[in-house]
Design a protein that fits this description.
Elements (H helix, E strand, L loop, with lengths): L4 H11 L2 H36 L6 H6 L2 H6 L1 H10 L8 H35 L10 H24 L3 H18 L1 H16 L7 E4 L4 E8 L3 E6 L4 E5 L2 H4 L3 E2 L1 H6 L2 E9 L9 H7 L26 H14 L11 E4 L7 E9 L4 H18 L13 H8 L1
Antiparallel strand pairs: 1-2, 1-5, 2-3, 3-4, 6-8, 7-8
Helix pairs in contact: 2-5, 5-6, 6-7
């Protein structure tokens, strides 16, 4: 073989600087890992996605939300570094060991994340089936994910401690009782935080209500141990995180997201003011209804011998139903009902079950007040009396 003095001279010069050879080899290894990552993501991952898009039995909308293949592809550069780091010259054994342990830890975490992502994808597909309503599997999948991440944590710990996983489990078993006693509140809070996050039970900004603890306000902070709620009187309440799992509470987020808020209130009428309507009374009340609406087509409704003829309260219910159906601040896509409740000693309650088309507190109260002020003002026009308990002034007038 022909000698090249120039090449021998470069080698001799490079031997004087071992760090340069180490840096060059390390740079080459990193470049190989980057190139492998780019090839896998741009060629293999894209190819698999194009292939899956051609399969008719795969829901493309659900598949697009999850990145299982992308996560798995992250294993390639870690594997390249794990197997190639020992080829870097002049790199100390301790540095090689640390880099290999970090690469292994990254591989374990990536595998665990990929499995968790796949389980989420599987749950999303399963929820599309009608049977999922009666047999949900989300809780079981969350338990599997918890076990996977625990195993992942043990593998990473065993890698850095250079011990067998079963040896670690035996050591943890002896300390479990002490750890449970010392960190009882922390463990409970940690489990509760995982459940709250997994089930999306509470978010910052949610309005929650816990009557047994006197809490009614907005969540302003969520931490591991506590949740801070600012009540509507501007006081702050601190709730242990696990209380939201063990105790019941009301979250008003659904109301805010729906864009409407329920109105459920009643007015009690004096039962002695409820009676049948005559032709003259009916003619006077027609002016309160739209001209194109016929309120009484059946002449039998005015027959005094008909026990099923129209009453003033029945007509008033029709009026209120029409009033709510055309009210500009009532959500017309929600339930609108005007109904009776069980009669009481105070009279017959007439209840409104409807929804205001806003969730702003002040506007909601104004809409509700306006509706019931209108009901009280219109009741006498139909010959109805709103019940009101006698006051001291009424008693004095009666005695006088």
């Amino acid at each position: 073989m022909k000698d090249y003095p120039f090449v021998d001279h470069i080698k001799a010069w490079a031997d004087q600087f071992p760090w340069l050879e180490m840096a060059t080899s390390l740079s080459i290894l990193i470049c190989v890992a980057i190139i492998a990552n780019v090839i896998v993501k741009q060629v293999v991952v894209r190819g698999i996605r194009v292939l899956l898009k051609k399969m008719p039995f795969i829901d493309q909308d659900i598949f697009a939300e999850y990145s299982v293949i992308h996560l798995v592809s992250n294993l390639v550069p870690a594997i390249v570094i794990l197997n190639g780091i020992h080829t870097v010259p002049f790199l100390s054994a301790s540095a090689v060991s640390i880099i290999q342990m970090l690469a292994q830890a990254f591989i374990f975490i990536t595998i665990a994340r990929s499995i968790a992502e796949f389980l989420d994808l599987f749950n999303e597909v399963y929820q599309k089936k009608p049977a999922s309503k009666n047999k949900p599997i989300k809780g079981y999948l969350q338990l599997i994910k918890l076990i996977i991440f625990v195993i992942c944590g043990l593998l990473i710990l065993a890698t850095f401690l250079k011990k067998d996983v079963f040896t670690l489990l035996a050591g943890f078993g002896a300390m479990a009782a002490v750890l449970m006693l010392v960190f009882q509140n922390t463990i409970l809070s940690l489990v509760a935080s995982v459940q709250i996050s997994s089930y999306d039970m509470v978010r910052v900004g949610d309005w929650i209500e816990m009557p047994n603890l006197g809490i009614n306000g907005d969540v302003i902070d969520i931490s591991l141990h506590t949740i801070v709620v600012q009540n509507f009187d501007k006081t702050l309440s601190t709730v242990p995180t696990n209380k939201l799992v063990t105790d019941s509470f009301k979250n008003w987020r659904g109301m805010r997201e729906s864009g409407c808020r329920r109105i459920l209130r009643s007015v009690t009428f004096d039962q002695t003011s409820i009676g049948f309507l005559g032709a003259e009374s009916l003619g006077m009340l027609k002016k309160f209804f739209p001209t194109n609406q016929s309120i009484c087509d059946d002449p039998k409704q005015l027959d005094e011998n008909n026990p099923y003829r129209l009453t003033n309260l029945g007509l008033f219910r029709q009026y209120l139903q029409d009033y709510l159906d055309h009210h500009p601040n009532i959500a017309q896509n929600q339930t609108i009902i005007v109904r009776h409740q069980q009669p009481t000693a105070e009279g017959l309650p007439l209840e409104l079950y409807t929804y205001a088309s806003t969730t702003v507190w002040a506007n909601y109260e104004n809409i509700q007040s306006e509706i019931f002020e209108h009901i009280i003002a219109m009741a006498p026009e139909f010959g109805l009396k709103v019940y009101q308990a006698p006051s001291g002034d009424d008693v004095r007038k009666f005695i006088a």
